[in-house]
Amino acid sequence: MPRTLLRCIPFSGLDNMCRDLRGKSPTIDVYTAGDEDLVIEAHLHNYSHSDVAITVDRGNLLIHAERQDQDDQKPRSYLIRESSSSFYRSISLPGQADPALIPADFKEGILRGVVPLRRRMIPAQSIAIGSGRSFT
Hints:
Protein name: HSP20 family protein
Number of helices: 1
InterPro entries: A-crystallin/Hsp20_dom (IPR002068), HSP20-like_chaperone (IPR008978)
Helix content: under 10%
Mean pLDDT: 78
Pfam families: HSP20
Organism: Nesterenkonia lutea
Family: Belongs to the small heat shock protein (HSP20) family.
CATH class of the domain at 27-116: Mainly Beta
């Protein structure tokens, strides 16, 4: 009886699945506008203004969006059909960011926040050199 060998590729569909998942998640763009502002844009086309929250916590800009879909169609046997979709992203802000002055707006499915960057000029400082002291 002849044996037929089949080639097994265990993760062959994983690339396609990852590509599909990436296409469904919102896109985030982070770029600088000149030397004074850091612009953060979240493309949240499936969310409304009331679904989106943006906060700053411990040097991170947090974007959270959650949508609840309800379907109250009467011809079906269930009373309520509900599903939710959520999105969360944390973006580390640079040290010169001024979180108290971040304006944000949500228009046509795009959340846009502008982080002003402070210009901190740290003057040069000379460091005294000791003689013969050990480091302990």
